[in-house]
Amino acid sequence: MLGKTANGLYWMYRYLERAENAARLIETGQRIALTRLGSSDEEWRSILQTGGMAEGYDAAHERLTKDAAINWMLRDKDNPASVMSDISAARQNARMVRAALTEEVWEALNGVYMRAQSLTQRKVSERDLPATLGAIRQGTALVRGATHGTMMRNDIYDFARIGTFLERADNTARILDVKYYVLLPSLSAVGSTVDNVQWETILSAVSGRGGFRMEYGPIADPRDISQFLILDKRMPRSLAFCTRKLRDNLGYLASSYGSRMPSMAKVGHLERTYLSHDIDAVFDFGLHEFIQKVLMLLADLGQQIEHDYRFYE
Amino acid sequence: MSNDTIFDEMLGHDQTVRGPYQQFDQWIADEDPKRLRAKQREAEELFRLTGITFNVYGRAEAEERLIPFDIIPRIISGAEWVRLSRGIEQRVRAINAFLHDIYHGQEIIKAGRIPQEMIAKNSAFEPCMIGLTPPGNIYTHIVGIDLVRTGPDQFYVLEDNARTPSGVSYMLENRETMLQMFPELFSKNRVQPVQQYPAQLLRSLQACAPSGLGRKPTVGVLTPGIFNSAYFEHAFLADEMGVELVEGHDLRVVDGRVAMRTTQGYQPIDVLYRRVDDEFLDPLNFNPESQLGVPGIMDVYRAGRITIANAPGTGIADDKAIYSYMPEIVEFYTGERPLLENVPTWRCAEPDSLAYVLDNLEELVVKEVHGSGGYGMLIGPTATKREIAAFRKKLKARPGNYIAQPTLSLSTVPIFARSGLAPRHVDLRPFVLVSPDGVQITPGGLTRVALKKGSLVVNSSQGGGTKDTWVLEA
Which residues cross the membrane (chain B) (predicted)? Predict the structure, then answer.
C-alpha cells in the first residue's frame, strides 16, 4: 500500500470521528440549554471549550450567543473544526484513497456529505437542529457500519481503525482536559446542581450516559466518571479501550508486514505505564498532569505512526 | 445547413426507424414518459452518489460537476462496427509506425510525404525521444479516435487522441447505469459488453513492460492529483485494475528504477500509465517547475527500465497540423488506402489555404493547432459578425497556429428532452489498446452529445452530455 494511501485512510477516519464528536457536542449543549432553568448563552462557552473551538470563535465574533455558537460549531467554513469542515475533509481524503475503499463505504461517505451539505446550506433553525444533527450522526454511523461490514481485514482496515481510535482517544482526553477540575474530589460539592450539569456534559459528550448508568448506577460520582472514561475497558470511548484497540491494530500491521515498528513500543508504553493501574493511581499522579501526559503521548504516537509507515516521506 | 441534410441515426434521412433501433423503438413507444423522466433523475442521483464528477477549470463555485447523462442509448449495428474497427486498427498501427519513424530514420520526410518543418518546428516533437525505442516498440498504448458521422455510410475521423485520451470511465459507468435502470432493454437487444476494458487495459499494459523482469510487472496509474479535471477517472481505472494510483511525490528513482513509497518502503514500478502531460513528467528533463512528475524518470526510461504509457512525444501524432497528413501517413506505413476518411482540412500556414479560409470564415470551423476541449475555436455558421472579425485578426496574426475545416452536418441521435425525443448532434470516441500482442478495440465508446438544440459543440467543458453507446452483436 502507498504511504499516501495509509495517510489518507488514517485522516479520513480521524475526520469522520471528529465530525461525530463535534455533532455530539452540539447536541449536548442544546440539551443542557433546554433542560436548565435560567441557563444563559455563556454556557455555550463551556461547550465551545470542550470542543477546542472557543478561541477560534472569539476571534471571529464579538460576543457569545447560542445561535452563533451553534452555527460556528456546525457549519461555519471559517472554523476548521466545524462538523461540516470535518465531513468535507473526510470526503477529500476519501476521494484520495477511493480505490482502497469499498463502493459501500465511499457511497455512504459521499451520501452523508451530500446530505449534510444540503441540510446546512443555510443557517439551521433551532427547530431543524435535532433532525439535522440526527441525520449527520446517522450518516456517519452508516459509514462505520459499511466499513465494518464490507472492508477486507487487511492493512487498509488497520489504518482506518488506527485513525478512528487515535482521534477518539484524543477527543476523550481533550474533554477531560477541559473539564478535569469538576472531577477533582477536593473541589466538588457532590450533588450540587452545577456539578451534575457538568458531569452530564462530560458523559453526553462521549455518548456515555446510558453506559455509565448501566455499570455504575444512576448517581454520578466524579471518581466513577473518571474511572469510566479513563480506565473502563468496556467503554468504547475510554482511553484504555481506545489504546488497546490501537495496540491491536498496530499489532495486526506488524504481523502482516512481518516487522515491529517503534510505534508498537510506544503504544505498549502508554498502555502499561498509564492505563493499567486503578483510578487512585491516576489521582495520586494528579488528574490534570495525567491527562496532559496522555495527550502528549498520543500526539507522539501519531507522529511515530506517520513516520513508521511513511505517510509523507 | 438545412434540416433535411442531417442524418439521424435512429430515423435516417426519411423518418423511418433504422435497423439497429427497431427493438428500442418498440420499447420506448410503450414507455410512460413520466417513468422515463423519473429514471433520468435517478440516473443523475446515481452519478452524484458514485461521485462520477469532473472539475471545471476556473470555476470555483462549481468545483465538481456532473457531466449530464442522457438515457437514450446510441446504437451502432454489428456490421457498422466491423467496418469502423478495421479502419481504426489501420489508423492506430500507422500512428505507431509513424512515431517510430519520426524518432528514428524519418523515412516519411525523406520520401517527401511530410515537410521537414512540420516536425522540426513542432512543439509537440520531443527531441529527447530521438533514437529511443520504448519497450515493445509501442508508443500509443491507449488511443481514443474521435469519429463523426454524416450519413449511413459516411464516417470521418475528427481527431486522433494519442497522448492521454480521457472518457473511458464514462463509457463504463454509463453502461453500468443503463444496466441498472433498464435491464429489460438488455434482454431484448444483444449488446456487446464493454466491462472487460479494465482487465484488458491491465493485460495490455503488462504486455508492454520492460523485458527481462523475471516477475509479474507492477503497473501504476500516475495522476496529477485530486484537483485534476479527470481525477475521478484516474482513481476509477486504478481501482478497476487493482493497481496503485500514484502522484509524483509518491515516486522517486531508487537503484535505477522508478519506485513508489509504500508503507513498507520503496517498491519498483515497471509500467506507468501516466495521466500527466509530457512536460510535467520529469522536472529534470522537462519543466523544472513541475511538482507533478518524477525527477530522473526519463533517465530510467532511456535505460529501458520502465514503460511510460503513452510514450513521451506521442503528441506529434495527434497534433492538428499533422492531422491533415494522416491519409498520407496511413498509406505510407500500411501500403493501403485509408479505410477511414479525414475531414478535409486547410492548413492556414499555407498561403493559398489561408486566403481561402479568410474568404470563407462564415462557413468554416477554425481550430487552434494545439488547442483542445473546444476552447479557442470558431464555428463560422453560428458565430456573430463580431466574433468572426475578431477571429480574423487572430488568424492573420498567427496563421500557422490554425487549421480550418468545413462545417460538417454531424449526425443526430435523439435525447430525452422535456418535450420527448429530440434530435441532437453527437460524436463518438472508441477506445483502443495497443500492445505487442495486438490491437484491441472495445465495442462501444464514449458518445458525446450537444444538449443544446442545433449546437455542434459536444465537449463536456462546453455543456455537452454523454450517452451509453451500444454495439449490437453482428
Answer: none
